[in-house]
Amino acid sequence: MAKMRIQMTQKSWRIEEAFPRFVKTQAARGVTDKTILTYNRHFHALSYHLDMTKTFDELTKDDLDSMLVSLRKSGVSPNTISSYARVFRTFLKWCRGEGYTDLSLPNIQDKETVKGSYADEELIALLKKPAKDCEFRNWVIVNFLINSGCRAGTIRSIQNRDVSLTDKRVIYRHTKTGKLQSVPLCSQMVKILSEYMVIRGGAPEDYLFCTVYGEMMSENALACAIKKYNHRRGVSRTSIHLFRHTFARKYLVDCGGDAFMLQKLLGHSTLAMTKHYCAIYDTDLTDSYDNLSPLADNVQ
């Protein structure tokens, strides 16, 4: 009877009242500040498509369906809708566990788009070693992004001690998941980092890529540095995250890598997350299938 009274009380809460509690519990579980910020931004965006002043008693499945319909009609991209839905689905799952509601967000059937990658001619321009010393750090960063596929937040937090040139590895903590990951370095990247770290110097706890004052680069500082670097090379696109997509495509398609290995390298928990990083076209399949077909080694 007491449990029923608690559940009835909780179901009388408004959605907008429960969400801060959800955020607080997620933060207590160790969810990163950046993810918490994403939760709050997505919730705010969804408030234009769902009345968050409704109580859970008033909330219906039709309300959730109408929210998704409203998102599609507003012109929001399929990928953004999927991102919003993941956050709200996580929220509702927590709500069910707390006794606020029995509802869940239905799976969406939108065809999600796959982001592109830097073209080969762009990469040739970006990877050409600079003559100017002032561009050297950014050239190393670009090489590292293409070698590792790591996120912008991750590369900013790497310290000198995280790099093992002997083992050809970098160990860093994912800014999105908080998990530690060991990422291999190719021989060329080891050579580049060896040269850079001699010039860089510093203590083991110093940031590998830092400002002129030796401090961690801010998100904006890194974005501006890459923007200027790319523009000087004649590359109009300046997205740092595009390097992550480029790594995925180069590894999986051009280099014939394994999808499960790519999932691990990108730090994804599921292959479903990894697939959005791989723009695979019909021409890719045709060009590579002679080598991938089971009959490839059985030529008559």
List descriptors:
single chain, about 300 residues, mainly alpha, DNA polymerase, domain 1, hpI Integrase, Chain A, 2 domains, three-stranded antiparallel β-sheet, 14 helices, elongated, disordered N terminus, disordered C terminus
List the SSEs and their pairings.
Blueprint: H1 2-11, H2 15-28, H3 33-46, H4 61-73, H5 78-98, H6 120-127, H7 136-148, H8 152-157, E1 163-164, E2 169-173, E3 180-184, H9 187-200, H10 219-232, H11 241-254, H12 259-266, H13 271-275, H14 282-292
Antiparallel strand pairs: 1-2, 2-3
Helix pairs in contact: 2-3, 3-5, 7-9, 7-11
Q: From the coordinates shown, what is the CATH architecture of the largest domain?
A: Orthogonal Bundle
Instruction: Assess the beta-strand content as a share of residues.
Output: under 5%
Overall morphology: elongated
Number of DSSP strand runs:
3
Largest sheet: 3 strands, antiparallel
Number of discrete helical segments: 14
C-alpha Rg, in Å?
A: 23 Å
Portion in helices = 55-70%
Strand order of the largest sheet: 1-2-3
CATH homology group of the largest domain: Intergrase catalytic core
The structure class reads mainly alpha
Please give the alpha-carbon distance between the first and last residues.
77 Å
Low-pLDDT sequence parts:
1-8, 280-286, 292-300
**CATH hierarchy class name of the largest domain:** Mainly Alpha
Order of helices and strands: HHHHHHHHEEEHHHHHH
